[in-house]
Each structure stands twice: as structure tokens, then as C-alpha cells.
Predict the structure.
Amino acid sequence: MADTRVLPVPDGLEGLRLDVALSRMFGLSRTAAADLIDTGKVALDGTSTARSSRVHGGSWLEVTLPDADTGAPPAPQRVNGLTVLYEDADLVAVDKPVGVAAHPSPGWTGPTVVQGLAGMGVRLAESGAAERQGVVHRLDAGTTGVMVLAKSERAYSLLKRAFRERTVDKRYSALVQGHPDPTRGTVDAPIGRHPSSDHKFAVVAGSRPSVTHYETVEAFRAATLLDVRLETGRTHQIRVHMAALRHPCVGDLTYGADPALAAHLGLTRQWLHARQLVVEHPGTGEVLRLESPLPADLQHALDVLVAES
């Protein structure tokens, strides 16, 4: 039976886009909120309207919410290139290939790590939403590298806490356009939803604190290889912070990278790789150092730059 609700817009959401206000009021993802609006399941003061419409305190929203989640986990599938780096009774670490999301989500129809592990017979912790069971952190679909997931309930709780309290050391390799000045530094700038794009993030005053440390490893004519350490873990954090420095990751067309340079280097995605993750094992207390080798497409791009230097 449909769940239709009619309620006023809180004054605190005054001036927000309709999709943003809806996501905050009902705890939906922005994509899910936009889907409800686009399919006519949302009325503002009795009239269907666009997702970009601005809401005002005291206006009335009529929303028909989707059926409740059945709680069924995602279907297992074979995911090419997904390999296990480490596994025991508490956790599993994988080397995530490009084009694979962490878990199923609205609008994503491609392969996921969660489904790939299910296809291998790996049973993850049941904590969290059904489609995110065992997931304690994420990588973008276009970013490769180390990702760790929980298998036991205790590991899920302790790993989530470790990421939340920033005790996990996360190291990335990033190839960025141009030459950052200074050659090493820290970007401390809050990240939030992009004000005009549903699928992007940006440095937005008053948003979630976000801190990225970087250091130059090698400089080429048109680009620089960086060692990047994340202090926080926001969606698209490295990509957004590098773009804010006007040195976007090479190949990251979403955040302003030069398509000609990407084509020259044979790249079809951002040059960004989660190469190392160091975490205390939630069961034994042992320090685990999990590493992923550089994928072939990123190595090829580096080889081209080295040959031209």
C-alpha cells in the first residue's frame, strides 16, 4: 500500500532546492528524491514541480514514498578483475577494479564489490542497510585500489569507528594537471553537494569538514604525481580538493580536467588509485598494511609522461 504523507516544509529548509529539502526531510539520497519528483510523486502546495524549484517555510509537501525495503541482500554476481588481497573470519580486503561501485545504489546498474564478494561465496556482516552490508568505507566507481569490508558484526562496529575517528591511514596516488605550488601541503576546505549539479561535490562554506594532505612524488611537463593522505573521507574528496587548487586529477573530466591530455595518455577515467590502507585488525589488534599495485591504464599514462620528459 502506498505511503503518502502531507506535511509542511520546516522553516530551516527555506530556500533549498526541492530535491535537497526532500532528501533531508525523509532521509533519502538526493538521487532517490529526484526520482520521486520526476515521476510525479511529489507535489508542492498541491502542484507538481521541478526538482530545482525552491521551497519556502510553511509550504506544504505531498509525497508518495516508495515501498519499504524488503531487506533482501543484493544478488551475487561475477565481477571481472575483483581480487581478494586478504581475508579472515573478521574482514576481507579487495583490490577494486575500475568501473565497479562499492555497493548497489539508485541509478547504478553496473557491478559492485558487495555483489562480487557474494558471487565468490564471501559472507559479509549483516549490519547496515541490506545493499551496504559489510561496507565501512567506499571508493568511487572510477577509482581503483584497496577497499576493506567487514565479515563479523564486531569487525563492522570497530572498523566503522576506526574510519569515523580517523585512525585508519589511507594513502592514494594521484596524477594531477600542472604543478601544485607549494609542492606539498594541506587542503582544509569543507565539502558539500555542488550547488547546481546533482552528481558533483564542491568546496562549500559550512559543509562537512574535509582535510587532504599531499606531497609531490615526481613532476612531469604537464602533470605531477602526488602522494595523498586523507584525514577525512568525503565523497570525491581528493577530486574536489585538487580541482579547488586548479590542479584536477588527470582524466577527471567531471571536475575540469583537460580532455586532450586524457586522450593523449589513453585515459578514460580519473588518474586516482587507493594504493595503501593501514588499519588495526578489529580482532587481533595487529596492524594490517594492505596494498594494491598500480593498474595497467594508470601505469601506461605514467610511462608516456616519463618517455616525454
Notes: The chain has seven helices and 14 strands. The longest strand covers residues 169-177. The mean pLDDT is 89. The domain at 166-309 is CATH 3.30.2350.10 (Pseudouridine synthase).
